[in-house]
Amino acid sequence: MAKKQFKAESKRLLEMMINSIYTQREIFLRELISNASDAIDKIYYRALTDKNLTFDKDSYFVKITADKGSRILTLSDTGIGMTKEELENNLGVIAKSGSLAFKKENEAQEGHNIIGQFGVGFYSAFMVADQITVVSRALGSDEAYKWESTGAEGYTIDTAEKAEVGTDIYLTIKPNTEDDNYDEFLDEYRLKAIVKKYSDFIRYPIKMMVSTSRPKEGTENEFESVQEEQTVNSMVPIWRKNKSELTPESYEQFYAEKHYGFDKPLKHLHVSADGAVVYQAILFIPEKTPFDYYTQEYEKGLELYSNGVLIMNKCASLLPDYFSFVKGMVDSENLSLNISREMLQHDRQLNLIAKNIKNKIKGALLSMLKDERENYETFYKAFGRQLKFGVYSEYGSHKDDLQDLLMFNSSKEKALVTLDEYVSRMPEEQKYIYYATGGSIERIDKLPQTELVTDKGYELLYFTDEIDEFAIRMLMSYKDKEFKNVSSGDLGIEADEKEKEAENADASSNNDLFEFMKSQLEGKVKSVKASKRLKSHPVCLTAEGELSIEMEKILRAMPNAGNVQADKVLEINVNHAVFQSLKDAFASDHEKVKLYTSLLYHQALLIEGLPIQDPVEFTNDICKVMV
Ligand code: ADP
Ligand code: MG
Fold first, then answer.
1. Based on C-alpha coordinates, what's the Rg of the chain?
2. 64 with 158, same domain?
3. 361 and 251, same structural domain?
4. Residue 132: CB within 6 Å of ligand 1?
5. Is 277:356 a contact under the CB 8 Å cutoff?
6. 535 by DSSP, 3-state: which?
C-alpha cells in the first residue's frame, strides 16, 4: 500500500515538535490521556442531545498496559473513536485539532471540559516511541481502521478489527541509548507516578495493571506476585469538591501529598471564583521558612491547571514577590495556552487571576492577624522580612497593600505590635512614631539616644532587622504620623521651661568650645551640639539629614558601596559632670580639650557599634588620662 506523505511544512513542524516544544518527555502520557478523556467527553456531550445514546459513567475509562518484552505501551479508551476520515484529518494533518472543531460546534453547551485545541499533543508520543499504531472504531460505525506511522516519514491507513467503540494506541518504546533511558516508560511504577503527577484529576478512571504481592494460598510466609487492575487517578480534584465535604485534615493531606512543604500549613484558602475570571484555587500559608527561602535558589510560584490537567509546576506570575511564600494551585477553564502548554502567555486572564489571588492572600493574612494572633505571629516570624522587602522594593509601590501586615517589637508590649496598635494608643501630644535601630533589643535598650523618648513614656519600636529602616523610609508615615529615628535631628519633644532656659544660656556660652571640638573632628562629624535627648549619658552620635547611621552601616557593608556617609552630630550632655571637666579644660589647657574630644568621640562610636579607625590611638589616649 502506498505511503501517504505529510505535507512539507508538516514534516518540519513534526520534527520541531518532537525535538523542541516540550521540555520533558514524560508529558506525552499526559497528552494521550487528555485526548482519551476528550474522546469520552465527546460521547458525554452527544448523549446530552441524542436520545438513543445513554452515558453510563462506569463503562468509560482509559486503560494503560505496558509490556516490557515487546516494548509496547498501550493506551486504550472507550471514547468516541475516529472514522477513517478523522484518522486522516486529525492525525494526518499536524496542528489540526478535531477537538477544537468539536468545541466550536458545541459551543452552546454549558461547561464543556474538552482539553485539546492545538492539534499537536498527539505527536509528542514520538519523543518516546519509534512507531505508533492507532486502532480506532468510531461511535456508530461497524468498521475499524488502523493508522500507523514511524514519524516524519508519513503514515499508512488500513482496515482493522476492533470489537468495541473506542481507540487503542500502541507505542513501540524506543530502545535506550547511551544518554537516554526509555525503559522508564515501560515501568509500571514510573508510569503510575506520571499519571498521578499530570492527570490525577482527569474525570474518568485511568486503569493500570499493577503487580502486587499477596500471601500464597496454603502457605504462611510465602508471597506471590499477582497482576491487579487499579484505578490510578483520584478523579475529583479536592478544589472542585464542596467545602462542606472537606475537613482541615483534607487540606493538610493535600499539602503533604503535593510536597508543598514538610510543615503543616498555618492556614488554607479554598477559592472558587466565578466573577470576571473563573478559577478555583487552594492556597496555603506555610508555618516554617523553607531552608532556601531567602536565597537565590528559592523559586516562587503556584501550580497551574487547565481544566484539571497540570500545565505548569511553578507559575511565578501568579504570585507577587512579597507573597512568594504562598504554596498551592490554581485551576482555570478559560486560560489561553500556547501550543506547548508549558509556556503560558502572560495574558490578561492570568493577570486577572494573579490580582485576585493577591487580594485573597492579603485578606487571609489580615483576618489571621485579627482572629488568630498567635498563628499570625508565627507566620510573621517566618516570613515578615519578605513583607518588609515588599514595602521597600519597587519604590514603595506596594506599601499600601502591605503596611497593615507589618509588625515590630515594642518597648511597651515587649512583643510584636502592628503600626495600627501603636498609633491608636499614642498620647495626643506625641508627634511621631519613634523607632530605634540596632542589632538586638537589649542593645537598643542601652542606647543613650532612646532616653528622652522612653522618659517621656512614649512607645518605641525596635528595628533589629537590616531592612526595617529602609522599609519604613519608604512608608514615610502611617495614618498621617511620621516615623522618627530616636537618633535623628529633632525629635519633636518639647523641653520643659526650666530646661529651655538653661539650654539657651548654655548654647551661646558654649559655642566657642563646640567650634573648637568640631575643628578637632574635621571630616568626622558635621557639628558638635548640646544634646536635648541625653539624660544620664555624657555623649552620643546622631544623624541629621536623610541617611541614618544604621543605614550608613548597612550600605557600607554592601559591595561597591562607595563612600556613603551620614551627617553625624556629636551630642554632648551639658548636664553631665564630664562636661564641667571639658569646660574647665577649655579655660586652661587646650591640649586636654583635644584629648577629651577624641575620647568622647570614640566612646560615641563604640556605643553606636561603629568601627574605631585607630584603636591604638584610642587606647593611648585612655592611658594618657590615667597617668
Ligand atoms: P488536540 O488534542 O490539541 O486537538 P492532538 O494532537 O492531541 O491535538 O490530537 C489531534 C486530534 O486527534 C484531536 O483533536 C482529536 O480529534 C483526535 N484524537 C486524538 N486522540 C484521540 C482519541 N484517543 N480518540 C478520539 N480522537 C482522538
Ligand atoms: Mg490533545
1. 36
2. yes
3. yes
4. no
5. yes
6. coil
Q: Are residues 337 and 279 in the same domain?
A: yes
**Which amino acid residue places its CA nearest to atom 15 of ligand 1?**
98
**Quick check: 462 and 441 in contact, CB under 8 A?**
yes
Ligand 1 mean position to 30 CA, how many Å? Answer: 12
Regarding whether 515 and 487 lie in a shared domain, the answer is no
Question: Domain for residue 138, yes or no?
Answer: yes
Q: What is the DSSP string of 183-194?
A: GGGG-HHHHHHH
Q: Mark whether 367 and 499 lie in a shared domain.
A: no
Give residue-wise pLDDT tens across range 387-442. 999 999 988 999 999 999 999 999 998 899 999 999 999 999 999 999 999 989 99
Is position 366 within any domain?
yes
pTM score, whole prediction:
0.77
Per-residue pLDDT reduced to its tens digit, 566-623: 899 999 999 999 999 999 999 999 999 999 999 999 999 998 888 888 899 899 999 9
Cβ 83 under 6 angstroms from ligand 1: no
Q: Please give the residue range of the domain that contains residue 317.
A: 238-377
CA of 99 to the centre of ligand 1 (A): 6
265 lines ligand 1 (CB under 6 A): no
- Cα separations in angstroms, 542 against 216, 331, 572: 84, 54, 11
**How far is 474 from 255, CA to CA, in rounded Å?**
36
Written as nine digits, the cell of 302 is 503556584
Q: Assess whether 290 and 262 both reside in one domain.
A: yes
SS3 label, residue 56:
coil
Give yes or no for residue 98 CB within 6 A of ligand 1: yes
Ligand 1: nearest atom to the Cα of 115: 2
CA of 516 to the centre of ligand 2 (A): 85
CATH at residue 427: 3.40.50.11260
* C-alpha 81 to ligand 1 mean position (Å): 10
DSSP 282-317: EEEE-SS--TTTTSTT----EEEEETTEEEEEEEGG
In a domain, 390, yes or no: no
Residue 37 near ligand 1, beta carbon < 6 Å: no
Q: In the chain, count H helices and then E strands.
A: 19, 22
Per 3-state DSSP, what percentage of the chain is helix, strand, and coil (rounded to 5)?
40, 20, 35
328 and 280 in contact (C-beta within 8 Å)? no
Residues 221 and 254 grouped into a single domain: no
Q: 582 and 499 share a domain?
A: yes
